Amino acid sequence: MDIFKIIYSSAIEAFLTVGVFVSITLFLIGLIDYKFNGIIISHLEKKGSHQIILASLLGLIPGCGGAIIMVPLYVLGKVSFGALVAAFITTMGDAAFIILVGAPKIYFWILLISGFTGITSGILIDKFNIGKNIKVNLNQNKLEEINRSSEIKDHHHKHFAHNHDDIIDKVLHRSHTSTFIFNFTHNIWYKIFWGLVILSIPLAIEHLAHGHHHSHEEHSIFEIVGFLGTFLCIAYTIISRKFTQGSNFDKVESKLNSIKETIIHSAEETAFLITWVFVAFFLYGIGIQLIGGEEKLLEIISQNGFLVVIIATAFGLIPGCGPQILIASLYLADIVPFSALAANAICNDGDALFPLLALNKKSALMVTIYNVIPALIVGGILYFLELHKIFY
């Protein structure tokens, strides 16, 4: 087994067949977020029958931002538990960008299914007063710890769904990044990244149009750019995760306040996505070699049936977008069925679970439970339809 060859080819494919197109899509959606998210949030804060629908629409926006914004709204009592669950069900996290670029028609189906599931679940939860008795209580030790650390970071931008220096602000903005790392991310990295993306667009389009048929010269350039792009993304992701301590909410909020921050964080999110796509491609390449080919892998999956849907749902329980990007990449490689992708999309919360865990673990647990139930039901129905060739 030539591991270096698998690493090399996985890196090239991750950047030029997925990364370039995802980066453009992510940036455009970031601009839409910047323009319109504040409007949706202001309407959400007004109690009414449309709250669950608006929460679901917020969750359907690709990425984790919509669902993350729902957390302080719920904690402060501005939205219901049903609205929170609806947003968490409809969000697909950063995995949405992978499906949106790789299979737009499938992404449309995911939107319809998760949107309907989120709205229905939210309405039922509120109708039967489920979650009404879940109280958000931060113990005194937690409050003292937060108060001590709140002076670390000062915010000079508009806050969404909470006020400056309130308890929510102190929990969600407890972070500090070194001056060197801040200068690197805000003055150097994003310029290098977007410069490389712009230069790579013609190569990516050429590759998409003609597959793997390139001249020797074109092939060499393609490989160098692809490998370099993925290598830089992996390096940046490691640096940002290890040395940048900003919360997910902090990043979402800064994007909603500034076009420059949207450009910067779009580069950061794309680097993270490309890193996980590379991991997915690499693991797939290793797996194929170990099992004995793609046909053998497909045979194993077809023999295990609904177990694949359960496993995909279990992956959705893992906080963060990385594992969900793996499932999305495996779907695009025709390894997991649509029913598994849909179940994972409904169950996963992306990065939105992290701020909720920080504020109230009981609420986070309850949201997770009410994500799993519809995920297994919808996944089971879709699997039955696939099995009988009614939907596939």
UniProtKB/TrEMBL annotation:
Keyword Secreted assigned: no
UniProt keyword list: Membrane, Transmembrane, Transmembrane helix
InterPro entries, sorted: ArsP_2 (IPR021552)
Presence of the UniProt keyword Transmembrane in the record: yes
Top-level taxon of origin: Bacteria
Protein name: Putative, 10TM heavy-metal exporter
Transmembrane regions listed in the UniProt entry: 12-32, 52-74, 81-100, 106-125, 188-209, 221-239, 270-291, 297-318, 363-385
Pfam families: ArsP_2
